Amino acid sequence: MLGFRLSEEQESFRLAVRSFAEKELAPRVDELEAAESFPMDLFRHLGSLGYLGVGYPEEYGGSGGDMVMRCLLIEELARVNCGFAAALLAHVGLGCIPIFRFGTEEQKRRYLVPAIKGEKLGSFGLSEPNSGSDAASIRTTAERHGDHYVINGTKMFITNGNIADYCLVAAYTDRTRRGTGISMFIVDTDTPGFSVSRKLRKTGHHTSETAALTFEDMRVPAAAVLGGVEGGFKQVTGTLEGGRITHAARSVGVSQAALEAAVKYAKEREQFGQPIAKFQAIKFKLARMAMEVETARTAMWRAAWLFDQGYAMREAAMAKLFASEVAQRVTWEAVQVFGGYGYITEFPVERFWRDARLMTITEGTSEIQLTIIARELGL
Predict the structure, then answer these.
(1) Is 268 exposed, middle or buried (0-12, 13-18, 19+ CB in 10 A)?
(2) 122-125/166-172 β-pairing
(3) Nearest to residue 78, comparing CAs of 364, 297, 303?
């Protein structure tokens, strides 16, 4: 970035992704939402275009760039379809970042390279039926038996879980060490003992597929341990840091979509002899929405820039918290601007509203982000 302005490379990339989203994804949104399915063909197309490799080095098939560009990818896709962006986010962020940052060279060649090409879809298995915000309370275990581990447990709310080719699974290898006894494993989803308990139906994000997973005496080789070393809780927290920033980008994307729809409708809808955009109550509402969207975007960009400098824990939490709450307010107000039309499926703002509701819950609730920020302040 050049100050608060995108570089020429970043702006060109943003426009290219927007073109893809509007030409390839937008015409299929209604079909995908109704089927509640993720389009693997578009995923592979993004891989062939090099878009999945943004932020990753060329030696692994990446196209270079930085976290800001990865955020631009997610924002532009979320502007058209939040569910699609969520599935991509789970892949390029949660499914790839830990392998790139902590994986062995062999793991990078086996999983990261095909993931960047769009040949393999990744997922991240952390949350469980009884473990969400308190990640250290997971119950899944991995017991060492010679040259392999046996994993038993369950996972919940796993994006791409039922369609992924591999899953990064968090499991305790040492129950005596809370948190620090957790290790990460890269597991092929066709491994015996790996099963999809059920596909979960959601209020929004229908184009993103979410599942509950079960591991029953699932045997994986010792080489499946991420980085080849047990005790990978820092791998979990390090991954979530980057995930919060791209999650903020997703919130900005759906907020931008809602803002654009509301502005357009307010200019066209006439009441009492003039467009409703002429009424102070509506124009002030739209002005505040625009201010909040732009402020959320700025916070997200700054956190992304800091991430590339090596540390952004506080700023990542701030960006995620603010952008997700902005998404709630902006999509709510967009429905209000549309009135009765905002509540029927004929117009997309009701989808934006449903999709935005998830934002303050996933990738760490608002309360967890406040806890992180307070901790970073020394409180």
Answers:
(1) exposed
(2) parallel
(3) 297
> What is residue 2's predicted lDDT score, i.e. its pLDDT?
52
User: Which band of pLDDT confidence, cut at 50, 70 and 90, is reported for residue 1?
Assistant: low
Domain boundary among 208, 232, 256: 232
Residues 242 and 347 in one domain: yes
Domain shared by 225 and 144, yes or no = yes
Rg of the chain over Cα atoms, rounded to whole angstroms, equals 21
Task: Decide if 363 is catalytic.
Answer: yes
CATH number at residue 281: 1.20.140.10
Q: How far is CA 123 from CA 30, 48, 94, in A?
A: 25, 20, 7
Please compute the mean of the pLDDT values over residues 129-156 and round it to a whole number: 94
Task: Check whether residue 105 and residue 171 sit in a common domain.
Answer: no
Beta carbons of 140 and 175 less than 8 angstroms apart:
no
In this structure, what token pair is assigned to residue 379? 């409180």
Same domain, 34 and 134: no
Q: What pTM, to 2 d.p., does this model score?
A: 0.93
At 224, give phi and psi (nearest 5°): -80, -15
Domain match, 154 and 250 both: no
CATH code of the domain covering residue 194: 2.40.110.10
Find the domain containing 52 and state its range. 8-121
Residues 24-49: tens digit of each pLDDT: 999 999 999 999 999 999 999 999 99
Give the domain-ending residue among 70, 104, 121: 121
Catalytic entry in 11, 24, 363, 376: 363
Cβ neighbourhood burial of 279 (10 Å; 0-12, 13-18, 19+): middle
What is the distance between the alpha carbons of residues 179 and 236, in angstroms, rounded to a whole number?
10
Domain count, the chain: 3
Contact yes or no for 247/220 (Cβ under 8 A): no
What ranges in 209-279 are assigned the alpha helix state H?
233-268
pLDDT band at 3 (very low <50, low <70, confident <90, very high): low
319-348 tens-digit pLDDT: 999 999 999 999 999 999 999 999 999 999
- Mapped onto helix, strand or coil, the DSSP state of residue 48 is helix
For the chain, give the percent of residues with pLDDT over 70: 99
Question: In terms of domains, do 340 and 365 share one?
Answer: yes
In a domain, 194, yes or no: yes
Domain annotation covers residue 134: yes
